[in-house]
Write a structure and sequence with these properties.
- This protein has 84 residues and is an all-alpha fold.
- The protein has a domain at 1-46: Arc Repressor Mutant (Orthogonal Bundle).
- It has three helices and no strands.
- The protein is elongated.
Length: 84
């Protein structure tokens, strides 16, 4: 196993330390597990660059046929529906 050092912002370090303590694992184990998960989700192509560009996850279907916030009067329509 190879040792390495990383630099973390104070808030990320504190959050990571707290998370590891609650799970009763070392920070090193948490970092290894996190990197393994990240690399499994974002595999590299054989020739080097990432096989796909990361994008935020797509929202699952909500069953709505249209975006309820696309109309300018969406607030009024929601308020009117609550009054019925």
């Amino acid at each position: 196993m190879i040792r390495t050092q990383i630099q973390l912002p104070d808030a990320l370090y504190a959050h990571t330390r707290r998370f590891a303590a609650i799970r009763e694992i070392s920070m090193a184990e948490l970092c290894r597990n996190s990197l393994e998960l990240f690399l499994a989700i974002h595999p590299l192509a054989e020739d080097g660059p990432p096989s796909r560009r990361w994008e935020p996850p797509v929202c699952r279907s909500t069953g709505l046929k249209a975006d309820p916030f696309s109309a300018e009067d969406w607030r009024e329509r929601i308020y009117a529906a609550d009054q019925e």
